[in-house]
């Protein structure tokens, strides 16, 4: 599978608890932190839920 790089670009303050938990599940806890993950359907779905908080790059 392809890998994607996800970078947190906005804070989770004043976001719903569900969005906060999704960010933690992706491994993102601070602004400008990046993680490289496999682009599975589950990961893609989580990224879509918080797309306004993250930047995505294909690797």
Overview of this structure, please?
One of its GO terms (molecular function) is structural constituent of ribosome. It comes from Solitalea longa. One of its GO terms (cellular component) is cytosolic large ribosomal subunit. Keywords: Ribonucleoprotein, Ribosomal protein. By secondary structure, the chain is of the alpha+beta class. It has a single domain, classed as Ribosomal protein L30/L7 (Ribosomal Protein L30, Chain: A). It has two helices and three strands; from the N terminus they run E-H-E-H-E. A three-stranded antiparallel beta sheet has the order 2-1-3, with no helix packed on it. The longest helix has 10 residues. The protein starts with a strand and ends with a strand.
